[in-house]
Amino acid sequence: MFVLVLAxxxxxxxIISLAYGFGxxxxxxxxxxxxxxxxxxxxxxxxxxxxxxxxPMSPPLFGxxxxxxxxxxxxxxxxxxxxxxLLGYVIVxxxxxxxxxxxxxxxGWWKPLALSAGTALFIYLLFDxxxxxxxxxxxxx
Amino acid sequence: xxGLNLLINGFMNSLTLVNLVACFIGALIGTIVGVLPGLGPxxxxxxxxxxxxxxxxxxxxxxxxxxxxxxxxGGSTTSILVNIPGEAxxxxxxxxxxxxxxxxxxxxxxxxxxxxxxxxxxxxxxGLQFFAPLLGNAALSFGPSEYLAFMILAFVLxxxxxxxxxxxxxxxxxxxxxxxxxxxxxxxxYPRFTFGWDELMMGIEFLPIAMGFFGISEILNIAxxxxxxxxxxxxxxxxxxxxxxxxxxxxxPAIRGSILGFFVGLLPGPCTVISTFASYSLExxxxxxxxxxxxxxxxxxxxxxxxxxxxxMGSMIxxxxxxxxxxxxxxxxxxxxxxxxxxxGPMLFSTNPEIFWTFIxxxxxxxxxxxxxxxxxxxxxxxxxxxxxxxLMPVISLICLVGIYSVRNSIxxxxxxxxxxxxxxxxxxxxxxxxxxIIGVVLGPTTENSVRQTLMLFKGDIFLIxxxxxxxxxxxxxxxxxxxxxxxxxLGRKIKLxxxxxxxx
Lengths: 141, 505
Description:
Chain A contains 5 helices and no strands. By secondary structure, chain A is an all-alpha fold. Chain B is an all-alpha fold. Chain B has one domain. Chain B has helices spanning 2-14, 17-35, 41-52, 57-82, 91-102, 106-139, 144-161, 166-181, 198-201, 206-224, 244-264, 271-286, 299-314, 316-322, 328-339, 348-351, 353-374, 378-384, 389-408, 411-429, 435-457, 469-487; strands at 183-185, 190-192.
């Protein structure tokens, strides 16, 4: 399936790069280099697509319960990005580490809590105290 | 004589507290990363790039090489003790290393590996010290057409040596080149593939791409994998002494592995992994007792581990002399040096010789540090190997998130990293090699410059390249390699070089 996406991407690059202007070999336009990239992606992906049609089906992407873990992890990453500027990195780090521990099935509540608190403290000491990097402190700032 | 003076200066520069601490931290973290299955040296090096920004380029280079180097040392520990390779370059070590462990010779195997790696590292650094300036001088005569030809050759070899499907490798290189073409083109200030997004005008940063494809995708992979608690055998310090026969049998394999590894390191692709397979097979052929291989032959442990250490040094040569990384960790190093406004390549030896010589001197020191670090702490590293991913991965995830944000205070970079991580997860599952993609991203701007400069130099007549003998020779090797790969199966001599996909590629 991914090879189909790449074939489509190759075709799109070809069309867009021609719109940027191919120029000539003597005076290359901004589209000349991406044109050849698009051409390479298209050719490679079509050949690969043909060879994959003959090969057996690939194994499933997720095991039992895998898709739930995958989505939970991805959504938690996204939540960190969206909430961090509002609440500040220390609080969000604490909450998100706890969430990751639970998603990855770290049992009990005190182990995940201790790990989250330790991680938030470690990140604060590393970035704020040692590296002097000014990160959003949110409601703590 | 000049080289000796420069080396002495390099030692004086590297013996500063900051550089020694950087070397130690790099080596220690590298060893831990090598011990832990999962997160590999490339992801760790990318993760450490923001921290190196606080210090100079030489310090950054020392720290990152320490990680790569340390990972090669550490990788063998779990191979021998638990039969689980810490990273792909230690897969071969499991074959005889674990058998030695079962016979009660784990301590001896670990000690011989550490000493063999030290010898290999030292020989590798000597090779780098000798060959790099020579090749750097030769590369000064390279024009854009030679660079272009060299890059085409590198791409051909890279797509063939990474993973088991050359087409997938080639596709990933092209995909990486495309990613690097996003943004304003510096040659004519024309915005490409930005679709009106301001964030894309300056292009997609290398660091979030590298951390996403190597770090986040690996975290997702580990989070979804089933964890089996490994059993680690305890090692006492007195167990570390190899007997006389084991010591004697290790000398030549260590030297052979070092030399072979160094030259394999010059090849594009997963050089450290290939060097271990090549070295193991060489030792088996050279041995008077090939039947012992797989049953705990000390040669089968020492030689591959020596080879992967000197391969790291060999792979520094194309990076430092031509500015072209042949492996994913050296691509991260190139990005790191660029962040410090240092452009590796033939001019490095005339414009920034102190960086090169400080780096060489620090590597000698780092190599010694690793030997001292690894032998007494082997028991501790064995215990680290059994830390559960449920504890490690949440911490690493958060360091990735905060680390990438801290570089440019850019939320967009974090989105890029997560998107790259998700795509990277699927690429791993579909067995697309990630290293060629990363090398494509980092080499994209140089490739485009070479293409344009070559076309303009030849006034559009591409056939003028035939008047450049070096470029023709390089292209001929590329064409011959493709022809060989196409024809060999038809002749019934199918080349099978299957390398486990991992981030050391």
